[in-house]
Amino acid sequence: MNWEDFDHNALISKTFQEEVTKAYETFWGKKQLGYDTEGRRVRTNLNRKRPKEYREQILREALHKKSLIENHLNDERRKKD
Predict the structure, then answer these.
(1) d(Cα 3, Cα 71) in Å, to the nearest integer?
(2) Are 33 and 43 contacting, i.e. CB atoms less than 8 angstroms apart?
């Protein structure tokens, strides 16, 4: 796998950001999970409580992953030199 292409095409691209935001919105748009009287997992009628700074959380996680990949690439370049 070419990490440079992944870094450029996936983490920086707008479509990646849109996909993450869409998945995040879908998750928080669903109702909470709970248990019925028989102990089975069921979806309740209660809304999930969304964190206040959810957009910043997404951005922080994406930037952290990007920095990990960049560090890996820099380490690989240093090994070649």
Answers:
(1) 11
(2) yes
SS3 44: strand
Tell me the three state secondary structure of residue 42: strand
- Output the pTM of the full model: 0.43
Of 77, 26, 18, nearest to 50 (Cα)?
Answer: 26
For 6-45, the pLDDT digits (tens) are 555 555 566 777 888 889 889 989 999 999 999 999 999 9
Instruction: Tally DSSP H helices, then E strands, for the chain.
Output: 3, 2
Residue 42 dihedral angles phi and psi, to the nearest 5°: -135, 160
